[in-house]
Amino acid sequence: MDTRRLLTRLRDREPRPGALAGVGRGAALGAAAVAGAGAACVAWGHFVERHLYTLRRFTVPVLPEGALPLRVLHVSDLHLVPGQRRRMQWVHDLAALEPDLVVNTGDNMSSTAAVPWVMATFDDLLATPGVFVRGSNDYFSPRPVDPLKYVTQGRSRYGGRTQRDMPWRELVAGFEERGWVDLTHRRHRIEVEGVRLEFVGVDDPHLELDDYASVAGPAARDADLTIGVTHAPYQRVLDAMVADGAGLVIAGHTHGGQVCLPGIGALTTNCDLDPGRVKGVSRWWPGAGSRPSAAAPDDAAWMHVSAGLGHSPMAPYRFACRPEATLLTLVPRGSSSPSAD
């Protein structure tokens, strides 16, 4: 092929100006569609999903043979500010479930004026035996935060703040006056419906306030079940509790990831827990790390992590991760595998 014919063919293949304009319009329309979809997702997460409160139910085989089922209501991460009446009413109405026990894993407040509102929210549930630990938001008021840090850094702390400006002592006093037990660095025994329970709890590991060594020790031999309770499910605490014989660990903090991608799941747990355990029931054993529950040894403990009821007022949205409370039905070991009702 001579040079003239080659140049002619190359010239004929050049896109026409009109074609380029069409490509530009297509790209612009595509970008607009993506932006519109993103805006719709943000609007859904802010105006709709964060108010779609959901009750989860799981059956967990952790009791001795012959024990009657025990119904445990797990509430976490209420993050209440005055005036959030929809959230308050939904949680208040959980008392109609008539649980045998309530476990509250912290982050109840997101306002220095929230204590009376929290007490009103749990008013009827406070008539039920209960235990609780505190979370970082029970100590420190919320401040603006870049939500991308949760994804890029994997966790977010409090930037060296040391002045606890939330009325946490008032909150603790209110719960204790109604009969709930503060498990912060404490072991506690209680019998519920004939089941002898031992609890062991720590202060919030997210703030590195946990001192498990102060309560470490083998699970009580005469207890039917030892339950570890912590706000944030950091692996060092899970390992220590389970190594001492806890058969069940209950935690919150993760918000279930708060913003999840359909088909992928949580982008972060805001701690060193693997995303596969960001919410719901799973197995844990010392050194489990990111290994799946399917790899658990027979004597592995059970763990429940709540996706929580609220969110920081600085991040008022949820996506593909509804706010929740959980009713755990504890049944004898050897029963069918844990199930979601």
UniProtKB/TrEMBL annotation:
| Entry GO terms, CC | membrane
* Keywords for the protein's UniProt record, in alphabetical order: Membrane, Transmembrane, Transmembrane helix
Transmembrane regions: 20-47
Q: Which GO terms describe its biological process?
A: lipid A biosynthetic process
Report a single Gene Ontology molecular function: UDP-2,3-diacylglucosamine hydrolase activity
Domain Calcineurin-like phosphoesterase: from-to ranges: 70-256
List the InterPro entries: Calcineurin-like_PHP, Metallo-depent_PP-like, Metallophosphoesterase_sf
Protein name per its UniProtKB record: Metallophosphoesterase
Which organism does this record belong to?
Kytococcus schroeteri
